[in-house]
Amino acid sequence: MTSSNQTKINLVDVLQQFSVQYIEQYQLLHKHLPLIEQDENWPSPCELTLSDDDTINPPPLSTQVFWRPTLIEKEKELNFDNVESALEIILHEDIKRYFTAQFSESLDASCEEGQLTLLFAWNEADFERLQENLIGHILMKRRLKQAETVFFAVTDEEDMIISVDNDSGAVWVERVGCKPHKKLAESLPQFIRTLIPRVS
Question: What digits encode the pLDDT tens for the residues 5-28?
Fold first, then answer.
């Protein structure tokens, strides 16, 4: 097994572990799965019905549905080929694996540095929107003549994001429009392992 494949497996594993922990803590606190307002024009594989799990209680509002992070099926095979082609760049394998591992609402977490929110795509259309945002971010970095990074989380501080350095794969904190200023981990899998789910 190559180190690249090992990285893929490790990252998906730690993402799954974190997501399971998040849902377990949410259920302990609220006695049910997370709820979200249902939008018929914005469906997601994350949404559950009573037929999916007859042990869950009916939602308190008819406009709400239960949801949980859901692994992206192999046949969907989401990728960043169009982004890499448009920007003439090879994105770091960790960031590609992160955003193609699962569909999910944003998940709140805590680390030694403070509070953050992990970003994911809710559905395939959201994945396309995410790609557009990442293209905009990288173009901004190029315009400012800064090292290229790819964000995957936001923090509780305005304009502060958490990103992956595209060359090294290290995780950094950066203010939007500024150079990364504090390294949090050597890799994305290493960083995810340190996170604690934050449920309210």
Answer: 444 448 999 999 999 999 999 999
What the chain holds in terms of domains, given with CATH numbers, is: 3-197 (3.40.1580.20)
Burial class (CB in 10 A: 0-12, 13-18, 19+), 57: exposed
pLDDT digits (tens, 9 = 90+) for 36-48: 998 989 999 999 9
Chain-centre distance for alpha carbon 146:
23
pTM (predicted TM-score): 0.89
Give me the helices (H) in the chain, please. Answer: 3-30, 81-87, 93-99, 124-143, 188-193
Residues 6+ apart with CB under 8 A from 41: none
Take residue 184 and report the two structure tokens written for it: 């949090």
